[in-house]
C-alpha cells in the first residue's frame, strides 16, 4: 500500500504532457493485458479497453467481469492505481482551466480573433465607448490594452492584454494587424494635457510604425485634449481624432445660440435614441445622389453627406463618385436592409 502511495506522489509531480502520455499508454496496455489474460471474456482489445475505462472511472456497468483469479487481481490493481491516476489527470485538467482563467484575467494570453476593436487605455470614456460599440454591433469583440494587473472590466465580449502599447510584442499579442479599428484614450481626470497628448502620440506612432513595417493598414482613432497638437498627430498618419475640449466647447456654443440643440445632438449620438449615423456603400443602381436619396427614404433612412460634404440637397442630380463615402441617419433595422445584398 505504501508503494502505491509513493507512485501517486510521484505522479502528481509529473508534468502534464508526460502524465497524459503515461495515462494513455497505461490504459491501452491494460486493455491489451486483460484481453491476453481472459480472451474468452474479453475477445478483443476494444472490449478490454471498455472494461478498463468503466473500472477506472468507477462506472462499473458489470457487463464484462473477470472470471479468473489473475483477472480479478488485475481488476484490483486497476481499482487502486487506475482510479487514482484518472483522479490526478482530472485534477490536472481542472488546474489547467484555473491557470487559463488566471492568465486571461491578467492579460497574459495572446488574442487570436480577427475583426475586433482595440481600446488602448482604460477609462470611464473607454467603457462608455465599449458599450456604444456593442449596442451598435452586437457581434463586436473588444480588446483592451492597459497596464493594470487584472482585466479592468468583466464582460463576455471583452478580452484583455496587459502591457505597453508602444511595445511590438504587446501589439502582436493583441493581433492588432487584424483589428477593425484601434481607439486610443487618455486617462480619466488628466491634469496635464500636454503630457497626455504626448503619450497618445507616442502610442499611435508605435502602432502606425508597426503597420508600416508589416505592410498593413491599421485604422486609428485618437482622443486629443488640445487642438494645437493636431498637426503632430497628422504627421503620425492618424485616421481620425476627437478633440475633447473642442467638442465640449462647440456643443456649449451651439446650445447657447440654438437653445435645446445640444439635447438633439446628444440624443442622436446616444444608442438610446433608436437611430444612428451609419456609413454605407454606394449601390450599383444608384447613379445620382437623388437615386440614393429616394431609395434610402423608402426604407426609412436619410442621406446626409458624402464624407464631409453636407450640401447634397443642392446637387441631387449630380452623379455619385465611385469612391463616395455616404452617411445616413437610420434605425438598426433600416441599416440591416441597406447592408443586405
Automatic annotation (TrEMBL):
One of its GO terms (cellular component) is plasma membrane. Keywords: Membrane, Transmembrane, Transmembrane helix. One of its GO terms (biological process) is potassium ion transport. The chain crosses the membrane at residues 76-100. It is a multi-pass membrane protein. Residues 114-248 form the RCK N-terminal domain. InterPro entries: K_chnl_dom (IPR013099), NAD(P)-bd_dom_sf (IPR036291), RCK_N (IPR003148), Trk_Ktr_HKT_K-transport (IPR050721). The keyword Transmembrane helix applies. Its main location: membrane. Pfam families: Ion_trans_2 (PF07885), TrkA_N (PF02254). It is found in: Cell membrane. This is RCK N-terminal domain-containing protein. The lineage of its organism: Bacteria, Bacillati, Bacillota, Bacilli, Bacillales.
